[in-house]
Design a protein that fits this description.
CATH topology: TIM Barrel
Length: about 325
Amino acid sequence: MATSYKDLGLVNSRALFAKAVKGGYAIPAYNFNNMEQLQAIIQACVETESPVILQVSKGAREYANQTLLRYMAQGAVEYAKEISGGKGIPIVLHLDHGPDFETCKSCIDNGFSSVMIDGSHLPYEENIALTRKVVEYAHKFDVTVEGELGVLAGVEDEVSAEKHTYTRPEEVEDFVKRTGVDSLAIAIGTSHGAYKFKPGDDPKIRLDILAEIEKRIPGFPIVLHGSSSVPQDLVKIINENGGRLKDAIGIGEDQLRAAAKSAVCKINIDSDGRLAMTAAIRKVFNEKPEEFDPRKYLGPARTALKELYKHKNIEVLGSAGHAYDK
């Protein structure tokens, strides 16, 4: 028997995106695979009064088990209420980079409130057909759907592409109209993973393409994937404590802030969180090699992640203070 996300206390993304577009900010979309990541995300978003999208990749479902993840998301709703004095915050449970109809259907049937179907690697008409099929199923249960046009380079989990293909503005109107998607992920220069660019590069988001897309589908919710900034202070801590992250470079936060003020209303951040946790864990292992209690290194990692995400909500996405927007 299918589980409705509404029974878990979750919300879909429709109203959140409408408020974000109107308010000139972006909702954080943070990936999680374990309890410490989930705690850090909820703590950061409650403390900054930000709505949040909890993202689960296909790899995360395989790693953590889909049943456990569903109950963790339900627990996150209750945890948010507990630490916010009963108010809670709006929480979306979202499938990141759904590879096929079956995975999307399974997530919808298991309490997800939002799914992404990634047909961006397919020929245009096949992408439309697959996306439309997911939309038709999802909308029966009031689950929102994100589609994608264009291809991001880079590697993260099971998503990998060598070449970047910018979204073509002339295709977006037709794609949105024929698929019925609720939001659209576009490729304008962001990239998956920690190794987005080479030293000496000057990474730039193509805000001109974003502006052209906005003109063609005004007010429509736009999503940016691969939007980690790869903070160099974290890379330094990792490398000073035994790591070997060579030439890890990301997108400037100032560019993401500019994008968040437009129709971009969901920004995906994963690699930065991995770096923050890894830096904290490596520091403990290096400074206290006798330590073997997981709480003693996962605790600091959780704190580091919370502080990073509070910074993102306040300084980059502009989502802080918008959890209770009418």
